[in-house]
Amino acid sequence: MTRRLVVQLALVVVVLALAGALAGVVWEWIWSPTIGVVVDHQWTAGDALGLQHQFSGTGWYVVVAVVAGLVAGIAVTLVADRVPLLTLAGVVVGSVVAAWLMLQVGTALGPPDPATAARSAADGTRLPDHLAVSGRSPFIAFPVGALLGLVLVFIGLSARVPPQESLESPSGRELAG
User: Fold this and answer.
1) Are 72 and 90 in contact (CB under 8 A)?
2) Where do the domains of the chain lie?
3) Where is the chain membrane-spanning (predicted)?
4) Would you give the end-to-end CA distance of the chain in angstroms?
């Protein structure tokens, strides 16, 4: 590979990684934690509404990751579309790195695990839940958004050259034009 292609691949990965870190900040910013109560040195979410809020971390992660992946995938593909397979490889690697970074940044910015704080807290102390996700969504949502953006650019916005219309008529005589 030439130096230019290596730089292109690295830039695609770095841009997607930065988008993932920024998405982690956005994810933590829009998420609202469940406020639970300490009972017998154990944190509990309380009622069913508290349990519903625990899913909001995963739900918001998926929403933010898909949107961020889509925007970042479109942006890098529009700029780095010289070698499509290289761009595809960069988007795959970069979006996986971005998903991991989004998870790490978001959870680091969120409140700490209330179970740890509850061990030394008095009964009745109110503590916010920590930001977390469940299942495989962290490793699927961002890449799906980024690859969808890549596909939209490659199929929908690709530079297509319309076929040149012939200036000759079917009989072989040149048309006036």
Assistant:
1) no
2) 3-156
3) 59-78, 85-103, 139-159
4) 47
Residue 6, amino acid? V
Is the CB of residue 109 less than 8 Å from the CB of residue 31? no
The pLDDT value recorded for residue 14 is 97
φ, ψ dihedrals at 44, nearest 5°? -130, 140
Q: In 3-state terms, what secondary structure has residue 42? A: strand
Residue 58 sits at the vertex; the CA angle it makes with 11 and 77, to the nearest 5 degrees, is 25
Q: Who's near 24: CB < 8 A, 6+ residues apart? A: 101, 102, 103, 104, 105, 106, 108, 109
Place of tokens 């979410």: 45
CB of 36 within 8 A of CB of 46? yes
Residue with tokens 């961002």, as numbered in its chain: 142
Contacts with 83 (C-beta within 8 Å, 6 or more apart), sequence order:
5, 8
- Neighbour-count burial for 107-122, b at 16+ CB within 10 Å, e otherwise: beebeeebbebbeebe
In angstroms, the CA 117 to CA 155 distance is: 51
- What does the pLDDT profile of the chain (177 residues) look like in tens digits? 688 889 999 999 999 999 999 999 999 999 888 777 888 877 777 655 555 555 788 889 999 999 999 999 999 999 987 888 999 999 999 999 999 999 999 999 988 888 787 788 787 778 788 788 888 877 899 999 999 999 999 998 765 545 555 455 555 555 554
